[in-house]
Structure formats: C-alpha cells, structure tokens
Design goal:
Helix content is 30%, strand content 27%. By secondary structure, it is α+β, with helices and mostly antiparallel strands.
Length: 92
C-alpha cells in the first residue's frame, strides 16, 4: 500500500540516519514555528527533516488534524503543537 501525500525534505547533508517528520498543513502558524525551530536545531545536530502536508493524505488528515504540528523521530511521535528543544536533543 503506497502512502500518498506531498512531502518536502530538508536534508542536513551529512549522511544522517535519524529522520524527523513534521505533519503539518498550509497556513498553520504553529507548524511554521516548529519547522523554524527544527531547522535551527538541524544546523547544530545532524538529522534529516521532512514536512508532510496532512491535507494531501486522508489517513494523515484523520490522525493529525486537531494536533498539528505532530513531530516524529524515526516514526515515533515526540511532540504535538510545540517542539521541546531539550527533549529533542536528548532523543537525538
């Protein structure tokens, strides 16, 4: 079964094995803030960053609609609404 949906990838450029995915949608100011925070952290720590638009995928929309942004690390949900920098750094 293929997963449909638009994703934007922001690679750290350093052969990272860790992947952070942010489930978001256009016009979500909390999603924009989460991506900004993650890009800042990415400048310090090596990981791949992917943003997925939940409005392009019915399953994502149903799962995350009222909780975005939802941030996962290697498939495990870490945060919703906000990024906890210290907790993320400890998890990486």
């Amino acid at each position: 079964m293929s997963v449909r949906g638009r994703a934007r990838r922001h690679e750290s450029g350093g052969g990272s094995e860790r992947t952070i995915v942010v489930y978001s949608k256009p016009g979500c100011h909390l999603c924009e803030e989460a991506m900004e925070s993650l890009r800042e952290i990415q400048s310090e720590v090596n990981f791949d960053l992917e943003e997925r638009d939940i409005s392009d995928n019915e399953r994502w929309l149903h799962a995350y609609f009222d909780r975005i942004p939802v941030v996962t690390l290697d498939g495990e949900e870490l945060f919703e609404y906000f990024v906890d920098r210290e907790r993320l750094l400890a998890s990486l």
